[in-house]
Amino acid sequence: MKYTISNVINKPLALCHKTITDHEAAKHWMEGLQRIEHVSGNPGEEGAKSDIYFLHKNKELIIKETILEQNLPRQIKFAYDSPMGSNVVELKFEEISENQVKQTNTTEMKMKGFMKILGPLFKGMMKKQSYIYLNGFKDYVESLD
């Protein structure tokens, strides 16, 4: 399943770039994020791998992240693996003006096991979660000076 969502951030592109690469800042806009642990590769570069720890409904969920492409400040592409499935997320940042950036998230998901059957039923929920992160990032960036 694949979908694309977007919004507009009312801050400069440089601030979006700085914030998207700051693992500590991610706690402010990624609901449930506990910590990010670097595993291998050069942090922030193509091929870098991290384990991302979330707390969801009082259960820890570990998601494996790999940076597939890195062309910041304009674009970054990640692969995520979890027990439920895998997905590829491409984030694009398009400068509209000096203080406005269009942020676009394209997600392609592949479910595993039993979730292959249930996946289509959860598309709306997964898209909603992506909106929460997208808008959380926007709100956090716009709160910065």
Task: Describe this entry's structure for a reader.
It is a single chain. This protein is about 30% helix and about 50% strand. It has four helices and seven strands, in the order βααββββββαα. The chain has a single domain (about 1-145), classed as START domain (Alpha-D-Glucose-1,6-Bisphosphate, Chain A, domain 4, 2-Layer Sandwich), CATH 3.30.530.20. The chain starts with a strand and ends with a helix. The chain has helices at about 15-20, 25-30, 115-120, 125-145, and strands at about 1-10, 35-40, 50-55, 60-70, 75-80, 85-95, 100-110. Strand 6 and strand 7 form a beta hairpin. The chain has about 140 residues and is an alpha+beta fold. Strands 1-7-6-5-4-3-2 form a seven-stranded antiparallel beta sheet.
Strand order of the largest sheet: 1-7-6-5-4-3-2
- Rounded to the nearest angstrom, the radius of gyration is 15 Å
Distance between the termini: 37 Å
The share of residues in extended strands comes to over 45%
Specify the helix fraction band.
25-40%
| Count of individual beta strands | 7
* Total number of distinct structural domains: 1
Class derived from helix and strand content: alpha+beta
Q: Report the principal-axis shape.
A: globular
Give the SSE string: EHHEEEEEEHH
Tally of helical runs: 4
Mean pLDDT: 91
- Quote the CATH topology: Alpha-D-Glucose-1,6-Bisphosphate, Chain A, domain 4
> What characterizes the major β-sheet?
7 strands, antiparallel
Low-confidence stretches: none
* CATH homologous superfamily assignment: START domain
CATH architecture assignment name: 2-Layer Sandwich
CATH class: Alpha Beta
